[in-house]
Amino acid sequence: MNGKLQMKGIFRAIGHYFTFFLLVAFVVTCCMTLFVTTLSNNMGIALTSENLNAAAKITFWNVILISLLFTVIDATRRKLTVDRPVKHISEALEKMMQGDFSVRVAHVSKLVADDRFNDIIDGINKMAEELSGVETLRTDFIANVSHEMKTPLAVIQNYGTLLGAPDLPDDKRIEYARAVADSSRRLADMMTNILKLNRLENQQIYPKAETYNLGEQICESLLGYENVWEARGIEIDTDIDEDVFVCADSELLSLVWNNLFSNAFKFTESGGTVTVSLKATERFAVVRVKDTGCGMSAEVGAHIFEKFYQGDTSHATQGNGLGLALVKRVVDIMQGEIGVESVLGEGTTFTVKIRRAENGLEEAR
């Protein structure tokens, strides 16, 4: 491979030399012809064949030397201004092809090379940075999935072994079977959420926009948790404006409300309060879900929408850290906004803004 590259380099140098030779020979011949003709006509000097032969030989060797000089200068220029930057870029791309996304290409001096190389280098460095981030996310995702799957699988395995005991009492058998069922449900929910999130992130789910009453959907979703709030004595406070219509995918938005309500009830202690409000502004329908749970710090709040992130590990068995990541992705697809406000020890409020619809048509204002 190196031999072929060397041969290509030699042939390229020879080609450059002959190019300069022909160019210099043409220019020098034209100039000498013009000079000799002018000199002969104006000064009446007779040119003999011997003088012309001597002048031709000197001119020929001058052409060879000048062509060689031009070739060396051009080769040096190419080496400094083209070959060296291209070599650095090629080496960086080769490392990136091998999976090393930490590589960065240094800028070339504007005095040596064309500044447009720096534009290419900036693009390569930006691409390497993005790929590095994607690779980190992929590695973290695999590690988190493996970790999250390990716990329910261990529970299923352990309780499944215990269920095989011949002298196991009925009450213990029911308890162990319930633990196996709960772990299986958690594992199934995690797989379902992973698939949904993957399809959303890869834009394999296309929203089907329709105009509908958002207040009715929120009330229906909230009623789905009636058994939860009644069993734990949680007070429900609602403030729902009437006739607030949105133009959105109702199935995707139901994921948002179900996840927010599930979180609110999960973190609210018995006897606490969950507040749900829907207010209409000129352009948006604003939904707030507030709980009186444990709240969270600013550091936790900054990561709450990341996949598999669980700020409160005491409730880890009740979720898998994918719900809010799904919520964020759905809201982004709907071109809406979501924010969170929380005070540690007092509670958390999630605010979702979805563009309103008027007379069946999405507002353009």
What does this structure look like?
This protein has 365 residues and is α+β, with helices and mostly antiparallel strands. Among the domains are: 99 residues, no CATH class; 153 residues, Histidine kinase-like ATPase, C-terminal domain (Heat Shock Protein 90, 2-Layer Sandwich). The protein is 61% helix and 14% strand. A 5-stranded mixed β-sheet has the order 2-4-5-7-6, with helices on one face. The protein has a two-stranded antiparallel ribbon with strand order 1-3. Strands 8-9 form a two-stranded antiparallel sheet. The protein is elongated, with a radius of gyration of 38 Å. 19% of the residues are buried. The C terminus is likely disordered.
- CATH homologous superfamily title of the domain at 210-362: Histidine kinase-like ATPase, C-terminal domain
Would you identify the regions where 5 or more consecutive residues have pLDDT less than 50? 313-320, 360-365
Radius of gyration over C-alpha positions, nearest whole angstrom? 38 Å
Q: What is the level 1 CATH name of the domain at 210-362?
A: Alpha Beta
Helix count, per DSSP?
Answer: 9
Class derived from helix and strand content: alpha+beta
Series of secondary-structure elements, N-terminal to C-terminal: HHHHEHHEEHEEHHEEEE
Choose one word for the global shape: elongated
How much of the sequence lies in strands comes to 5-15%
Head-to-tail CA distance between termini: 63 Å
In which order are the strands of the major sheet placed? Answer: 2-4-5-7-6
Instruction: Tell me the number of strands.
Output: 9
CATH architecture of the domain at 210-362: 2-Layer Sandwich
Biggest sheet statistics:
5 strands, mixed
CATH topology of the domain at 210-362: Heat Shock Protein 90
The chain-level mean pLDDT equals 77
Helix content: 55-70%
